[in-house]
């Protein structure tokens, strides 16, 4: 069911902290403790290094690609407290620093571009406890920042955008309500909380606070809503648990424990259509989970890295 | 009552229990029975028994750090236990048969420990707080790591368990107090902004769970009710910064001491009645130096007076008696007075200090006077009874262990014997011989004058070894290539999550990007002492790396170094040989229902029957027989289009229901491809009509009157939808109702209402299925197929944001959207070439606005590039330039 297409020796001098392939599946970006970001062309099973981006002066924690309609932008965040947005030049083979945001007081741990339909926006979560939302203003050709101060006491570890188009769930009428393009974010932090944020009149307000985890929340991921009949968010924590949060209206949320793992869980990723969740953690294992029609979560595979094998049932 | 006590020499209100100058103790603690006092300092730990006369048991410590805090376990179960803190370490000791045995010692914090406190009731629980901002709770039964870590953002200076509640504890952070509930370890339950200056001491009320007092540098003691913490209940103001404020175990009293560092001559303790905060009710005068600490001694059951034990900087331990009259002043009524010392009351003039210095041997004295802060030298053992000393010198690459034996006649003309211990030393015989020669020579010089020689000999040993090692040292290349870790990874790293070393991300459509540690480099098992605050084996915060560094000072401190701690040489090779940065990309499309080949093969154009047939064939090629069935079924449902209306599946309620449930079923399985395809096909007639009409509005000829402004489009002509369409396509209807004008509703009512109106809710989801499938196609680069799907979007996708051209009527100057003016009904455009009014196909230049019949324009512009009107506009070129920047 799952086959390996490509194994790329990135040549980073230290551990990789994040890797992401762009919208079309043609380019791979990786970031590492060696302070660099590398971009590879991975078309048709081969790979070649396109660019080696140097600009951070600390380990780079996370990267994110923008939708191609904004050009091939790449955003990265680092221990050096900076967020850098890179823009491609020369037939998209070289990336140059397009914008640098240095308004955080501690390590920036998470970046994510908003869904394309919301426009060119970027959310950043930092260990200084705040979340920044950067929005590109095409008329002024400038990035504007909105900051959610003190979003998480001690520090924010992860941010994730809600999908742009949200169907009206349940039997409620009123699809023509202006509720279609509400901008929402989910974040997780060192206060063991998961929080849902909503943009209201140009300000970000806390919509709900989800309390369940007993240790730092390491990652959050808002599932694409297509095919699902309610809002779904996944969160994982140092307490070794992954929790699936579901809601019909974004204000009351139900928690289901997906699984308690053997080690810390620090990475979550939903598939494009939101039916499979990839989980990875401190024990170096990757597992894939899907929800049966009865609503039970089951593990459908184990990816043991380093061996290049995926065992799927 | 104990006879010893009877014999004590009391002055009016206190007696001197101990005076021992050489202790240099800075911490004092009284045990729960009120019998033993622990005095702890850098050089010695001492335990004295208050009930027997002046017996002090001294235990030398080998530590370069002073003792920060000391406390006896307050429970009777573990009354023999005491704990001391020394820099970052916690040491738990047992007092048993006149010996102080260390139970364990743990590196509890990453920075200096500021305070300790035993749980008031649970004999195994201990709280510690530190400058590193953490408050750890320890359980003696598992001392490897804290049972709970409370993370405060600011450094903690005090920690105190509640004396009533089992769960509450308070900590002081600069001027603030945080109250924690150990059941809710995430965040403090109360936060009190108490003082503007640093808080030196906290004390919970012994009688109320909610009352706490804090004393501060700002000369005040504040009393708070934690249930209402906005402002203090009352404030006590003194004339000096307050070091400690403690409730009295009786009445409403409070004892305060000034900050020792100030040395303002304030060597007295003050007793206050909190009911009257203007003046102290009593001053305890007697100490000749500042008071370092004081504690209440447990009352004997048959005593009515209370005892206060105080320890001052001049190393005097005093025991104070709190008489009934003082108790009364604090609002306490003793039941009955049978104090045998009553006769001593008020005899203020009588002062008496008992000399306490025990018989000190000359050697013991020398040992106690020895300055052990000799660089590169550590004293391993110092035994005055066996009369020998063991020291270890580590100089550059030399390690030497020296044993010094003192004959009984030393230092009166008899030098000590020196001996290099072979085990543990790495100096050669020749160097050892040179060293011993030097030492013996020096010792002889001094003892000949009856002087002691230990310290000078030890210093000589260090200098000799330094000289001897310098030759070899010159050849050594000293490499310290990396920066001090504390510069890069500062203290705030405890809040930065530990870096991910593995991960998996779904990207594009069905790609799974994985990275991680190679299997052979799997992390070696973590020792608990590496980071006591981690709950699980993988560390939580980036600061865990600091420990790596301190353990392995010559290694590059990074995450990877963290994973290669043991078996270094072997791991190091692997580490170099195998790249640690490999990314694997998996094709996980097989896990999903969407299929790229089908996406390419599927068609959406044509009549429903043909589409279904074609798509069924495509599914068969791929081997998806389940889909073949569905497509065949779909063909059946849509089939009899040309046939009799009555028999049509599409008109049959069952047919619509079937398609609806098929779509929702596919959607719930996340087969977005099938759900979207069915949505498109079975919304077809309706959509085509909408599309046609909307296209009509977009494609209708647009004309301009030269030089006029452009106006925005207005409404879409929904009224052009023929009623027949709506009837034939009943099930999409409700969607129309939500978005279209009310005139539609009237039309449907007139129609043959055989079909009950389906629910709106599922239909509103159909648009999302199409959008999602379109995005999938887009990611695959199937742009043509994507457009095909997007054509079926029901809601007109977006308000047209581009430019639309509207002309003004040349006769009445009103905006005219179509070929003829709405108000004067005349044709609006006149051809610049043939000067006739234009009806039908027309072209105009967007720049100069001149235009006319398409034929005329084409003919003219094929020969010329400038406008015929003479406006000098190079119509073709400039338009092209405008459209393609």
Automatic annotation (TrEMBL), chain A:
GO terms for molecular function: structural molecule activity. It is found in: Lysosome; Nucleus, Nuclear pore complex. One of its GO terms (biological process) is protein exit from endoplasmic reticulum. WD repeats lie at residues 9-50, 53-87, 258-290. Keywords: Lysosome, mRNA transport, Nuclear pore complex, Nucleus, Protein transport, Repeat, Translocation, Transport, WD repeat. SMART domains: WD40 (SM00320). InterPro entries: Sec13/Seh1_fam, WD40/YVTN_repeat-like_dom_sf, WD40_repeat_dom_sf, WD40_rpt. Its main location: other. One of its GO terms (cellular component) is COPII vesicle coat. Pfam families: WD40 (PF00400). Belongs to the WD repeat SEC13 family. PANTHER family: NUCLEAR PORE COMPLEX PROTEIN SEC13 / SEH1 FAMILY MEMBER (PTHR11024), PROTEIN SEC13 HOMOLOG (PTHR11024:SF2). This is Protein SEC13 homolog. It comes from Phyllotreta striolata.
Automatic annotation (TrEMBL), chain B:
The lineage of its organism: Eukaryota, Metazoa, Ecdysozoa, Arthropoda, Hexapoda. This is RWD domain-containing protein. Residues 365-468 form the RWD domain. It holds the Pfam family WD40. GO terms for molecular function: signaling adaptor activity. InterPro entries: RWD_dom, WD40/YVTN_repeat-like_dom_sf, WD40_repeat_CS, WD40_repeat_dom_sf, WD40_rpt, WDR59-like, WDR59_RTC1-like_RING_Znf. GO terms for biological process: cellular response to amino acid starvation; positive regulation of TORC1 signaling. Keywords: Repeat, WD repeat. GO terms for cellular component: Seh1-associated complex; vacuolar membrane. It comes from Phyllotreta striolata (Striped flea beetle). SMART domains: WD40 (SM00320). Belongs to the WD repeat WDR59 family. PANTHER family: GATOR COMPLEX PROTEIN WDR59. The keyword Transport does not apply.
């Amino acid at each position: 069911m799952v086959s390996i297409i490509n194994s790329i020796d990135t040549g980073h001098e230290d551990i990789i902290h994040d890797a992401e392939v762009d919208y079309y599946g043609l380019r791979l970006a990786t970031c590492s403790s060696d302070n660099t970001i590398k971009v590879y062309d991975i078309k048709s099973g081969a790979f070649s290094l396109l660019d080696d981006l140097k600009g951070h002066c600390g380990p780079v924690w996370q990267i994110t690609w923008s939708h191609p309609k904004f050009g091939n932008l790449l955003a990265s965040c680092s221990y050096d407290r900076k967020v850098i947005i890179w823009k491609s030049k020369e037939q998209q083979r070289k990336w140059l620093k397009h914008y640098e945001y240095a308004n955080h007081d501690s390590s920036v741990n998470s970046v994510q571009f908003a869904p394309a339909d919301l426009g060119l926006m970027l959310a950043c979560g930092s260990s200084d406890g705040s979340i920044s939302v950067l929005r590109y203003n095409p008329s002024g050709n400038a990035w504007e920042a909105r900051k959610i101060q003190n979003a998480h006491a001690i520090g924010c570890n992860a941010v994730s955008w809600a999908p742009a188009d949200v169907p009206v769930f349940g039997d409620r009428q009123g699809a023509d309500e202006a509720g279609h393009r509400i901008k929402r974010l989910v974040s997780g932090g060192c206060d063991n909380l998961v929080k849902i944020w909503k943009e209201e009149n140009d300000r970000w307000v806390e919509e709900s606070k989800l309390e369940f985890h007993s240790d730092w929340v390491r990652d959050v991921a808002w599932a694409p809503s297509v095919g699902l009949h309610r809002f779904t968010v996944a969160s994982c924590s140092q307490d070794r648990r992954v929790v699936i949060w579901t809601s019909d209206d974004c204000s009351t949320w139900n928690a289901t424990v997906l699984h308690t793992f053997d080690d810390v869980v620090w990475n979550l990723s939903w598939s494009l259509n939101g039916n499979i969740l990839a989980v990875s953690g401190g024990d170096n294992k990757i597992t894939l989970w899907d929800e049966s029609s009865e609503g039970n979560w089951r593990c459908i595979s184990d990816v043991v890295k380093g061996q290049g094998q995926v065992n799927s049932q | 009552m104990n006879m010893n006590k009877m014999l004590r020499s009391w002055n009016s209100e206190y007696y001197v229990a101990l005076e021992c100058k050489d202790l240099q103790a800075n911490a004092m603690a009284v045990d729960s029975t009120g019998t033993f006092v622990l005095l702890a300092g850098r050089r010695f730990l001492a335990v004295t028994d208050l009930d027997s006369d002046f017996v002090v048991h001294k235990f030398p410590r080998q530590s370069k750090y002073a003792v920060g805090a000391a406390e006896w376990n307050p429970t009777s179960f573990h009354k023999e236990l005491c704990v001391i803190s020394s820099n970052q370490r916690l040491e738990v000791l047992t007092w048993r048969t006149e010996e102080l045995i260390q139970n364990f010692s743990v590196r509890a914090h990453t920075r200096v420990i500021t305070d300790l406190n035993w749980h008031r009731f649970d004999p195994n629980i201990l709280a510690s707080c530190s400058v590193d901002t953490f408050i750890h709770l320890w359980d003696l039964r598992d001392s490897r790591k804290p049972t709970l870590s409370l993370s405060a953002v600011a450094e903690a200076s005090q920690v105190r368990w509640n004396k009533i509640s089992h769960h509450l504890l308070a900590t002081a952070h600069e001027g603030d107090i945080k109250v924690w509930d150990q059941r809710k370890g995430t965040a403090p339950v109360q936060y009190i902004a108490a003082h503007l200056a640093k808080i030196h001491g906290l004390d919970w009320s012994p009688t109320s769970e909610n009352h706490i007092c804090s004393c501060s540098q700002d000369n005040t003691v504040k009393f708070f009710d934690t249930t209402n913490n906005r402002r203090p209940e009352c404030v006590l103001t003194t004339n000096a910064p307050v070091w400690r404020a403690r409730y009295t175990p009786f009445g409403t009293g409070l004892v305060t001491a000034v900050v020792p560092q100030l040395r303002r001559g304030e060597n007295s303790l003050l007793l206050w009645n909190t009911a009257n905060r203007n003046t102290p009710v009593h001053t305890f005068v007697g100490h000749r130096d500042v008071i370092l600490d004081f504690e209440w001694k447990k009352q004997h059951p048959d005593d009515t007076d209370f005892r206060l034990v105080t320890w001052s900087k001049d190393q005097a331990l005093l025991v104070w008696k709190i008489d009934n009259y003082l108790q009364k002043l604090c609002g306490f009524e003793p039941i009955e007075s049978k104090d045998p010392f009553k006769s001593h009351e008020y005899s203020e003039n009588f002062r008496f200090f008992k000399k306490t210095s025990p018989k000190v041997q000359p050697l013991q004295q020398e040992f106690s006077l020895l300055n052990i802060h000799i660089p590169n030298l550590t004293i391993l053992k110092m035994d005055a009874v066996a009369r020998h000393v063991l020291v270890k010198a580590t100089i550059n690459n030399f390690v030497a262990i020296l044993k010094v034996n003192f004959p009984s006649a030393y230092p009166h003309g008899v030098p000590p014997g020196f001996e290099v211990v072979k085990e543990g030393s790495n100096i050669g015989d020749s160097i050892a011989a040179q060293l011993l020669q030097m030492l013996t020579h020096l010792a002889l010089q001094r003892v000949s004058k009856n002087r002691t020689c230990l310290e000078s000999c030890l210093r000589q040993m260090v200098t000799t070894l330094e000289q001897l090692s310098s030759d070899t040292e010159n050849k050594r290349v000293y490499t310290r290539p990396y920066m001090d870790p504390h510069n890069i990874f500062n203290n705030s790293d405890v809040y930065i999550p530990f870096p991910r070393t593995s991960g998996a991300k779904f990207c594009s459509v069905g790609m799974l990007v994985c990275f991680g540690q190679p299997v052979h480099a799997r992390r070696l098992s973590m020792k608990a002492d590496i980071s006591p605050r981690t709950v699980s084996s993988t560390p939580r915060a980036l600061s865990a790396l600091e420990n790596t560094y301190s353990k392995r000072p010559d290694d590059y401190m990074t995450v990877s170094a963290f994973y290669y701690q043991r078996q270094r040489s072997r791991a190091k090779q692997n580490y170099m040989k195998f790249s640690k940065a490999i990314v694997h990309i998996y094709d996980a499309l097989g896990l999903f229902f969407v299929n790229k080949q089908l996406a390419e093969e599927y068609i959406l154009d044509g009549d429903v029957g043909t589409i279904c047939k074609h798509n069924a064939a495509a599914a068969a090629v791929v081997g998806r027989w389940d889909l073949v069935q569905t497509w065949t079924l779909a063909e059946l449902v849509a089939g009899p289009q040309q046939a009799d209306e009555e028999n049509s599946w599409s008109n049959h309620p069952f047919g619509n229901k079937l398609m609806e449930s098929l779509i929702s079923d596919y959607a719930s399985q996340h087969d977005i491809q099938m759900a979207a395809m069915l949505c498109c096909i079975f919304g077809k007639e309706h959509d085509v009509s909408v599309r046609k009409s909307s296209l009509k509005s977009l494609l209708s000829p647009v004309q301009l009157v030269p030089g006029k402004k452009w106006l925005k489009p207005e409404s879409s002509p929904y009224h052009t939808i023929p009623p027949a369409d709506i009837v034939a396509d009943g099930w999409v209807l409700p969607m129309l109702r939500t978005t279209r004008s009310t005139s539609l509703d009237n039309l449907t009512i007139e129609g043959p209402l055989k079909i009950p109106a389906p629910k709106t809710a599922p239909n509103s989801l159909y648009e999302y299925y199409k959008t999602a499938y379109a995005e999938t196609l887009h990611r695959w680069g199937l742009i043509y197929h994507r457009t095909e799907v997007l054509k079926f979007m029901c809601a007109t996708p977006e308000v047209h944001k581009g430019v639309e051209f509207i002309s003004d009527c040349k006769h009445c100057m009103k905006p005219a959207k179509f070929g003829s003016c709405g108000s004067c009904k005349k044709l609006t455009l006149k051809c610049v070439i043939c000067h006739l009014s234009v009806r039908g196909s027309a072209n105009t230049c967007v720049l100069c606005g001149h235009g006319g019949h398409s034929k005329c324009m084409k003919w003219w512009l094929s020969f010329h590039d400038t406008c015929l009107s003479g406006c000098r506009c190079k119509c073709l070129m400039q338009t092209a330039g405008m459209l393609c920047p």
